[in-house]
Write a structure and sequence with these properties.
Layout lengths: L3 H8 L7 E2 H8 L5 H9 L12 E2 L11 H12 L3 E2 L2 E2 L1 H4 L20
Parallel strand pairs: 1-2
Antiparallel strand pairs: 3-4
Helix pairs in contact: 2-3
The protein binds a DNA duplex (13 and 13 nucleotides) through helix 2, helix 3, strand 2 and helix 4.
Length: 113
DNA sequence: CTAGTGACCCAAC
DNA sequence: GGTTGGGCCACTA
């Protein structure tokens, strides 16, 4: 499976901003959800300019284990993202997407199977 | 096919 | 604030 769409979206994350796995998954409508994004990022190929460090967990929490965790934190701070106690101020650094909440869908003409 | 794991998310205790 | 458990799906053995 090609995670190209995921990488493409990640590459679109502006400097000094971060996005969450869940949001990216919703944006891309990935069947695997946040988990798929996590897997995609884990398999993230290097040398493609993919700012993987701008992808964080829900609530702006860093879910990446060592040693990449430290690297991610350093890179984020370098770009101007404040990382404190493994957390990020989503209020100021979250990348504002047009993602709509997958909430209720009234008048659905395609019910579950 | 089943079972285990994972850079996830969320509710509940 | 922390730990558990369920859900969700992709990938590997």
């Amino acid at each position: 499976m090609s995670w190209e769409p995921v990488y493409r979206l990640v590459k679109k994350i502006p400097r000094g901003r971060v996005a969450t796995y869940g949001d990216l998954a919703r944006k891309l409508r990935l069947p695997g959800g946040a988990r798929a994004v996590g897997y995609a990022m884990a398999a993230c190929p290097s040398g493609r300019g993919i700012p993987w460090h701008r992808v964080v967990g829900a609530g702006g929490r860093l879910r990446i284990p060592e040693p990449h965790g430290s690297l991610q934190r350093r890179l984020l701070e370098t770009e101007g993202v404040r990382v404190e106690f493994g957390r990020i101020d989503m209020d100021r650094f979250k990348w504002k997407l047009k993602a709509r909440r997958a909430k209720s869908k009234p008048g659905k003409s395609h019910p579950e199977r």
